[in-house]
């Protein structure tokens, strides 16, 4: 029953267009200089911060941070921006792969955007889900002046079939850095800087962001 309910939520989320948010009450938003307002967390289909499927890490609940910002200066439309990004991710070794939870959302400047990729159980990943891998979801694009902006949440999971549960949190920083550096080496997306989103939880008694340092890596694709 739980799987059926999750699938229904995912289908509903994938059918939604980006939804304007009238009130930001209770939502953590960063206001980086020169960029639109960016939600600090990957959100579930219900609009609450994702918790890595309930993972307990060192006695605390995990919260999944936004840790990548992608800016496309050369796309001709939102659909072109999506296509360019999906192709670039594949060239960087992060094609769309199945076997991951889906239906997530990201907040950018008053709007909730459903995740890319949009398959029922898909994510961008550098390996199959049966082994340890880096994977992530990307949200957008948001039109910002003359560019298209996406945000992303990437994490590493360590897989051991002899452990319960077999899939466990490994790192946010490792996945963020690997994804953005591979984009920089293999595609038109180049690392252009870092933005402090203030989403590292270090002193919270109940919540943690693991090894996340609060920084989002910014990558830009030119014309």
List the helices and strands and how they pair.
Blueprint (H helix, E strand, L loop, with lengths): L1 H14 L3 E2 L8 E2 L7 E2 L16 E2 L2 E3 L5 E5 L5 H14 L4 E3 L6 E4 L2 E6 L5 E4 L7 E12 L2 E13 L7 E5 L1 H14 L2 E8 L10 E2 L6 E7 L2
What would you note in describing this structure?
- The protein is α+β, with helices and mostly antiparallel strands and 223 residues long.
- The chain has one domain.
- The protein is built from three helices and 16 strands.
- It has helices spanning 2-15, 78-91, 173-186; strands at 19-20, 29-30, 38-39, 56-57, 60-62, 68-72, 96-98, 105-108, 111-116, 122-125, 133-144, 147-159, 167-171, 189-196, 207-208, 215-221.
- A hairpin with a 2-residue loop joins strand 11 and strand 12 (147-159).
- The longest helix is centred in the first third of the chain and has 14 residues, at 2-15.
